[in-house]
Amino acid sequence: MKNRALLLTATVIGGLSLVYSTGPGALAQVPEHDAPPGPGAGSDGAGGRPPSYFAGPSPSAPQAPGVNAANIPDGPPAEPSEATEAVAQQGSAPAHDDWPAYGRDNDATRSSPLDQITPENVGKLQRAFVYHTGSKPGPGQANKWAAETTPIKVGDGLYTCSALDDIIKLDPATGKEVWRHDAGVKYASIPYTAACKGVVYYTSSTVPEGEPCHNRILESTLDMRLIEVDAADGKLCEGFGYHGQVNLMKGMGESVPGFVSMTSPPPVVNGAIITNQEVLDGQRRWAPSGVIRGYDAETGRFLWAWDVNRPDEHGEPKEGEHYSRGTPNSWATMTGDNEQGLVYVPTGNSAADYYSAMRTDKENAVSSSIVAIDVKTGSPRWVFQTAHKDVWDYDIGSQPTMIDFPGPNGAVPALIVPTKRGQTFVLDRRDGKPILPVEERPAPTNTDVPGDPRSPTQPWSVAMPRLGFPDLKESDMWGMSPIDQLYCRLKYRRAKYDGEFTAPQIDKPWIEYPGYNGGSDWGSMAYDAKSGILIANWNNTPMYDQLVTRPVADKLGLMPIDDPHFDPKGGGAEGNGAMADTPYGIVVTPFWDQYTSMMCNKPPYGAITAIDMKTQKVLWQHPFGSARANGPWGLPTYLPLTIGTPNNGGPVITAGGVVFVGATTDNLIHAFDAKTGKELWSDVLPGGGQATPMTYEYKGKQYVAIMAGGHHFMQTPVSDALVVYALPDAH
């Protein structure tokens, strides 16, 4: 270690080499002793758990008492029905001043018509106010916080939520709290992350204007509830569900707090609230269901369910039954299409991400896909798959964006689908067929996992620029010193790597590139219809994985969340997983030098790209994120060098020609010129900017807001600060 310190000093003095000290310790989610066991070790180990050790419930186990967090009466199983007729919502045609939906509009463009802030004056931005939500880890609580919140603004209200789902209305000019609804979410209900990405503004079709709950704020919670409150005073809407709440654990079967949760705002499509849920990765094959459901936005009444393994049964499960366990779940923000009567559902894998032998054909057909569900019936109308038989955790985390794509016979209703692979698919919303060509290309199939063959081909979007780099080579291995580079080259050699889609291995580690935090994740993209510019920030972070047999998994202490021996401080959705009920566990780490916490591949580790959607050509692209808060051993360099860091959170584009984005591990909010990509302005936030910003106008002034909540996985500082900027008043 002393020699390494001397080498670091020499690097600092040399100056230039430090440009690449990006500190992907931001991806350090497992202790170094939990690294993949290495060649020949995945099947070592004897004994395993004793017979008396907790083995978990059977797939047919009933739901235990206490899982229903608010003790909401279930009532008898409901049959399918249709939603109350709805009125047009704010997100369908947003007012010029407002940001009424998570993605600004129902199309999820993250594009604003405001133009008061321009490339010429953005450098004058200053803080208008900072609001503290009050939600941070308490004494003795493991840091699982990452608020990820994008506020919405409608009229005289700025509406947001805390990381533990309290709903809040603020004065848009001062940040003064107008009201606050305490959601009562407990620490035990936090899954992988304490996050609330946003709330939903809903206008009633049955309650007259001026009466309570004509306008409502809707949210989904970490403990699986839907809540509706009056937008004017924050009081529960008594006519919705059970005194303002709906229990989403009904029909889910056995679970424990934190196993299944909701972090994304549910869309309302033609009067139907559509719900999905995050099911904690890596726990067990028979995890809670990934069922998608519809509820009446007026009353909370159950409408329908889409359950992958019981696709023709759209009612709630009969007494003593539950939705199919372990089916692909959807945790990303969905997009609703009122015109087509569809909701576009980004799906993930069946439970046990890295082993597919126990999945049904129905599950394999819809995993890592966009599934377009009819919001009247709950039946899929079409499916487009982005990765076949996915065992790389390539679930779709991005919200799809709806655009009008120019075609030979006029505009085509299209859907932009970003992926962790860096592949961006452009589909026809009516039938799911690619508008821009997609090729099935050969993929590696060589694996030592018995009975789990891989798909011989995988889909590639060949007309859209790829948000990524070519396959890794040994010569790409990088280090702060020759010793570090040698270490990484040896690590590369001892792993299996056949390029993208390298199949899982037991006998040795395999390199997963892009990694599960690669490409585009939950921040998605921003699209300006007037200019045709698509903005995307993305990651370049390979992972180092290895399957281990059950005895080795037991020896490593890999336990699912419902095991009495589970350690909540040991991680959750990312990294190592027990994958109980299967023959294997999984060990996952960043592909890094574990001594310096530096990635082994050469930088950049994050980038931002502008694409002209009229030509599908890159307008500009450069590394995204600086070295100021990043460095070896997790130490900041304090050097404002743009080297590209891991990033989470999306961009916003404005008619003023400015792109705003936080996301990076340098704890900055950035402003770029949309035409040239030049960075125009930045500010140091009180916590990590792992959230998508938004912009609104109030009383003639444009504001830019970002939740600087930080992120435990990205290892950025956790904060409860919502930071809002504006230009200074003219004098």
TrEMBL record:
<feature type="compositionally biased region" description="Polar residues">
    <location>
        <begin position="109"/>
        <end position="119"/>
    </location>
</feature>
<feature type="region of interest" description="Disordered">
    <location>
        <begin position="26"/>
        <end position="120"/>
    </location>
</feature>
<dbReference type="InterPro" id="IPR017511">
    <property type="entry name" value="PQQ_mDH"/>
</dbReference>
<dbReference type="Pfam" id="PF01011">
    <property type="entry name" value="PQQ"/>
</dbReference>
<feature type="domain" description="Pyrrolo-quinoline quinone repeat">
    <location>
        <begin position="99"/>
        <end position="704"/>
    </location>
</feature>
<comment type="similarity">
    <text>Belongs to the bacterial PQQ dehydrogenase family.</text>
</comment>
<feature type="region of interest" description="Disordered">
    <location>
        <begin position="435"/>
        <end position="463"/>
    </location>
</feature>
<keyword id="KW-0732">Signal</keyword>
<dbReference type="InterPro" id="IPR018391">
    <property type="entry name" value="PQQ_b-propeller_rpt"/>
</dbReference>
<feature type="signal peptide">
    <location>
        <begin position="1"/>
        <end position="28"/>
    </location>
</feature>
<dbReference type="GO" id="GO:0008876">
    <property type="term" value="F:quinoprotein glucose dehydrogenase activity"/>
</dbReference>
<keyword id="KW-0560">Oxidoreductase</keyword>
<dbReference type="InterPro" id="IPR002372">
    <property type="entry name" value="PQQ_rpt_dom"/>
</dbReference>
<protein>
    <submittedName>
        <fullName>Glucose dehydrogenase</fullName>
    </submittedName>
</protein>
<feature type="compositionally biased region" description="Low complexity">
    <location>
        <begin position="49"/>
        <end position="66"/>
    </location>
</feature>
<dbReference type="GO" id="GO:0016020">
    <property type="term" value="C:membrane"/>
</dbReference>
<dbReference type="GO" id="GO:0048038">
    <property type="term" value="F:quinone binding"/>
</dbReference>
<feature type="compositionally biased region" description="Basic and acidic residues">
    <location>
        <begin position="95"/>
        <end position="108"/>
    </location>
</feature>
<dbReference type="InterPro" id="IPR011047">
    <property type="entry name" value="Quinoprotein_ADH-like_sf"/>
</dbReference>
